[in-house]
Amino acid sequence: MSLQKFKHDLINQPFQNAVENAIKSANHNLSFLTFSQSCQDLFVVAMLEGKSKGTFLEIGCGQPKYGNNTFVLENFFLFTGVSIDLNYDDNWSANRHLNIVERSWPLCRPATLWHKTDALNFDYSSLPNYFDYLQIDIDPPKSNLELLEKLCSTKKFAVITFEHDDWDSRSFELNIKRRSREFLLSKGYILIGGDIGGRNNSKLVSYEDWWVHPNFIKKEIIDAYKTITPVTKHWSEVLFKR
User: Fold this and answer.
1) Cβ–Cβ < 8 Å for 128, 55
2) Domain count within the chain
3) What are the tens digits of pLDDT across the range 26-50?
4) 231 pLDDT band (50/70/90 cuts)?
5) Measured between alpha carbons, how far is 146 from 31 in angstroms, rounded to an integer?
6) Can you give the CATH number for the domain in which 124 is found?
7) Residue at 91 is within a domain
8) Under a CB-based contact definition with an 8 Å cutoff, are residues 99 and 74 in contact?
9) What distance in Å separates the CA atoms of residue 163 and residue 89, rounded to the nearest whole number?
10) CA distance 59 to 82
11) What is the 3-state secondary structure (H, E, C) of the chain?
């Protein structure tokens, strides 16, 4: 069974080796090295070349560990950051199979400032003007666009994963994908992977775009990973060598 490799060699070679030996191309079985839905955490690791002690702003964080895009960054790369989610409740019945640490933000993520609040009404002016990573993933889709425009008008980010949910009729009718792309391009960001998708009942569904800013990410990294095609693509097409 062949192993997948990142499209470039990370500065953090131990992690590079671990990923290569844990991610198997035949069935995309992922080890503890990623907890994201679609390897967003490894995308950040790749773009930042295994950087340690970075920062993140995570909007729509969900669980502190499983399905989360920043657990790996905090626990393996010593990132600190701010995570916001209005709806997450560690007492949900869906969380009862988890131990108390795994489902509790304060216990599981001590280096993260977690806020159970409405992201649209949060006071971002008190936060730094730069973060290494921005995630936007809330509902409805129009709220994602509103937050993107608000944040990227006043702050800078090296890496952005933006959920446009183009499969959703609410997003499609409002042209969230097109409008978000036009906005980020106007701010100097570069689209590394558009229409990133995952499989839902064997169908590849598009829901997200992956971006970087060339002021913070090296040109050779951008050139190595940039994967722009007019069709939905699986996240592995962006991250890994064939």
Assistant:
1) yes
2) 1
3) 344 444 578 888 889 989 999 998 8
4) low
5) 35
6) 3.40.50.150
7) yes
8) no
9) 22
10) 8
11) CCECCECCCCCCHHHHHHHHCCCECCCCCCCCCCCCCCCHHHHHHHHCCCCCCCEEEEECCCCCCCCCCCHHHHHHHCCEEEEECCCCCCCCHHHCCCCHHHHCHHHHCCCEEEECCCHHHCCHHHCCCEEEEEEECCCCHHHHHHHHHHHHCCCEEEEEEEECCCCCHHHHHCCHHHHHHHHHHHCCCEEEEEEEEEEECCEEEEEEEEEECCCCCCHHHHHHHCECCCCCEEHHHHHECC
Residue range of the domain that includes 183: 13-239
Q: Is 0.85 topped by the overall pTM?
A: yes
The pLDDT of residue 191:
95
Look at the block and give the residue holding tokens 């993140």.
56
Task: Please give the structure tokens belonging to residue 51.
Answer: 């950087």
**Assigned domain for 113 exists:** yes
Look at residue 1 and tell me if it is in a domain.
Answer: no
Check residue 209 and give its pLDDT. 94
Which candidate, 136, 153, 118, 115, places its Cα nearest to that of 58?
136
Q: Which two tokens stand for residue 105?
A: 């933000």
pLDDT, position 192: 94
Q: Model confidence over 143-154: pLDDT tens digits?
A: 899 999 999 999
On average, the pLDDT of the chain sits at: 85
20 in any annotated domain:
yes
